[in-house]
Design brief:
The complex is a heterotetramer, with 2 copies of chain A (about 375 residues) and 2 copies of chain C (about 130 residues).
Chain A (H helix, E strand, L loop, with lengths): L5 E2 L10 H13 L9 H21 L6 E4 L2 H15 L6 E5 L4 H12 L3 E5 L9 H7 L4 E5 L13 H10 L3 E5 L18 E5 L10 E5 L25 H36 L5 E4 L9 E6 L4 H8 L2 E2 L15 H5 L4 H5 L2 E4 L6 H21 L6
Helix pairs in contact in A: 1-7, 2-7, 3-4, 5-6, 7-11, 8-11
Chain C lengths: L7 H8 L11 E7 L2 E10 L2 E10 L2 H14 L12 H7 L7 H26 L1
Antiparallel strand pairs in C: 1-2, 2-3
Helix pairs in contact in C: 1-2
Classes of the chains: A alpha/beta (about 375), C alpha+beta (about 130).
Bound molecules: pyridoxal-5'-phosphate (PLP) (2 copies).
Amino acid sequence: MASDLIYLDYAATTPLHPDVAECMRQVQSEAYFNPASNHTAGRLSLAIVNNAAAELAKLLNVSLTTLLWTSGATESNNMAILGAAKQREHRGKHLITMRTEHKAVVDVFRFLEKQGFEVTWLTPDSDGQLSSDRLEAALRDDTQLVSIMHINNEIGTVQDVAGIGSVCRKHDVTFHVDGAQAAGKIAVDLATLPVDLYSLTAHKFYGPKGVGSLYIADGISIEPLMFGGSQQRRMRPGTLAVDLIAGLGEAASVARRTMADDLSHLSALKQQLTRGLQDIDGLYINGPSEGGYPGILNVGVKDVEGESLLHALEPLCVATGSACNSQSLEPSYVLRAIGRSDLEAQSAIRFSLGRLTTPDDIETAISLYCQAVRKLRSMTPGAAL
Amino acid sequence: MASDLIYLDYAATTPLHPDVAECMRQVQSEAYFNPASNHTAGRLSLAIVNNAAAELAKLLNVSLTTLLWTSGATESNNMAILGAAKQREHRGKHLITMRTEHKAVVDVFRFLEKQGFEVTWLTPDSDGQLSSDRLEAALRDDTQLVSIMHINNEIGTVQDVAGIGSVCRKHDVTFHVDGAQAAGKIAVDLATLPVDLYSLTAHKFYGPKGVGSLYIADGISIEPLMFGGSQQRRMRPGTLAVDLIAGLGEAASVARRTMADDLSHLSALKQQLTRGLQDIDGLYINGPSEGGYPGILNVGVKDVEGESLLHALEPLCVATGSACNSQSLEPSYVLRAIGRSDLEAQSAIRFSLGRLTTPDDIETAISLYCQAVRKLRSMTPGAAL
Amino acid sequence: MTESPYNLAVRDCFANPLHVGDVVGGVTAYFDDQGMRIRISAGIVDRLMAELRFRAWGCPHVIAAAELFCRQFEGRDAQDLEQFAVGSIMHDLAVPTEKTGRILVLEDTVRSLRVAINDRLIIKQD
Amino acid sequence: MTESPYNLAVRDCFANPLHVGDVVGGVTAYFDDQGMRIRISAGIVDRLMAELRFRAWGCPHVIAAAELFCRQFEGRDAQDLEQFAVGSIMHDLAVPTEKTGRILVLEDTVRSLRVAINDRLIIKQD
Ligand SMILES: Cc1ncc(COP(=O)(O)O)c(C=O)c1O
Ligand SMILES: Cc1ncc(COP(=O)(O)O)c(C=O)c1O
């Protein structure tokens, strides 16, 4: 990367942790075999896969056999939601999710709507939070699936997964959680959380891109998304990418070791950033002012156009709205759902911080942001003279 | 890998070409960004993705916009077959494939059968070959999709894709080709071949595992398999794994340079192997005795049990049947389809050769095979005395 | 390899706008559409637009377009505004076609500026 | 890390079978089931199975089981065959349960060997 760039887009993707990169290199050169192959080399790769599964199982506090390898959270979400909805279709065709979910959840439910399912789209409060009471009120006799994300990718809201899950258990409703922004970043103990399906992706926590996992609690069964071959108990066919899986396992292991330090590092940086920006006139925080995930700070500012702000911020690499839809200029639907106007949503900038972010990076970010706002405001016509 | 192992299972998976490994390392450390991110870093990754697409497009002689990134041929096959079948459901519910297809095709059609589609399962001749006449005879007014693989993964048969494709074009039937064993290994010119959908996977031609592609000819539209986000023209969502994609592009570029040499290298080795084994009593070749892909030789031998043969062959890493189902002991359905008995199919060994295979490896393979057969036969009871 | 969505001209006009401001006592035109807002003011000396200033609220293309307009027409005869063409600005700044509507806001502003200058000149001639 | 589907005992019995062959003139039992074939012959000296030999067609577990049987019972009293237990062979060779049927072919062979030896001994006693 051009050395003058400052990367504050860790929620979009992270670099490989050096141990992960090293682990993958080793597997690529010494154990690149097909874990399904019935020979010594294949078994070497299979052992590596099993070892990685054990690492991920430890991170989530689950048993090894509850985890499937996928190509990422998008696939995990599709598999979980489509698979559960179809499997329990007889139980009812009512599904519940939130308006602030990631597209990889929203668009799956939109598809199911076209297939004859009925979806209730809950709106969270202005912090992005959904109370379990709100959820309970939305449940019906024919509700069979609820999908609520763990950490919001745009504004950092951490949902009350335990509370929402309990409500689902009480009503015998399958509960899926999109944990793409949470796994490996905050403690996720699936032995105690009442969650049936949990999606994650390695590249959000310093693991490789192109690999993720879906946790399927014991006793839960879903229809597969793909067919072919007997890998992964026929639930997800395809040659296992042993190096990617090893990388995910290593990233899980690193995350377990460093999670506490990561969180305090991020909290300090977020505080520094929040303080540095707070004196800007017309600045507001999108999302929770307290209690949110410390790696994400989303701010908007009055009377500044979003695209120009983003351009003026270069060499800061930050996001407007979700990384996944930042190529389009539509105002973020997440910000709209928590009550922002189109205009407000347009000036939103998501700073997402990570392990390699330094206080110097934050200082630079603050001063670039202040400058950019000043400059753009100085250009703004008041009104017709 | 333990240095005494001899890897002759290139059809299961291949090691990374050094240029591919190097390219991926560079991308991982310098351009690990999300190509969908709207900032300088993201655009750097996007340029790398576009560059890789250009390389793959050159390999297949197609335009860039016809290619989608997937997680591998399994996903490409599922997407192509399910997506085409559903898209053209109004046109008819009759589908055609072959009994010798890979599980990642077979099981998709089995699923479609359960969904109310009717599938004709064609049996190839004893070489594994399907003539376009046989195909044409099977077509009906309500046939909407034909899926025939390019190179068979177990026995190396190369299908007459041009002939079969012409028949499909003539009858306005969508034609999908599973090219997992062909792309990057033999010339595949999709500008001239009458193919609508073509699946491939990088790890079969010295690229990374966990990434593949689906070619969708201009004018062909299919339903997506997954939903979420606007990546890849909404056809395949999920964060693009820029390093894997770069690796696939690099592997395509290497393949273009080395294909002719690869093929003559493999032909020489296959000849050496065939000659070395030909004197064994009761030995026969499964698949085409001539004209097959030179990287694959599948042989069976009378009066020898398969599992013991495989074990006696260690440290040779070879496959019995397809890599993907070699954990189970069922006789290969591919060999059954070309007319082998269960017993014959059980002793089948697939040698699959690759760029790094040496004449010495082949010599060792020959002598281990001869020894193993001798030993096991010496143990065989004639009959009740 | 790093392809910016803004060409060099946009980046220069955006980073170094030389014409931000207002000409006090000058002729002014303002337009507001599509969420974009542009104000241009001209200081007229003997039919010449001796000074051109702009303020704009919009994406980098809109800001750069306003700046480029000022760079191109400052010091020229007010008549020359007839020659102003959105097409050439779109081309110079490689504006993506989906943003055409935004650049038309500049066109509207320039047209209204021309009218206002003509009015002023007519008044003066009277 | 490389876990073989065969434990050390299987690998040893398979790689170094010491009892392949036939005892010419010995007592012989043959069984053929589940696609497995096992023949065992015993050279009897004073009720002792002085020599045990096998031939087998089957997977490595079956071959190893036959070899292990010979190793365990060679030199022992024919009566001891009563003690032969599939369970202990399955355990020693860590045979996966789905292969139980195959090992039962060995049991059948051993049972038939016992009967044949008894017959021979009775004949001799006569
Ligand atoms: C909340 C959330 N869910 C799902 C995804 C999709 O993950 P991936 O792109 O790895 O499939 C992302 C990231 O893009 C995310 O932030
Ligand atoms: C013919 C064929 N099709 C499809 C596949 C599936 O490829 P992948 O495992 O990379 O998804 C394979 C390899 O396993 C294959 O040989």
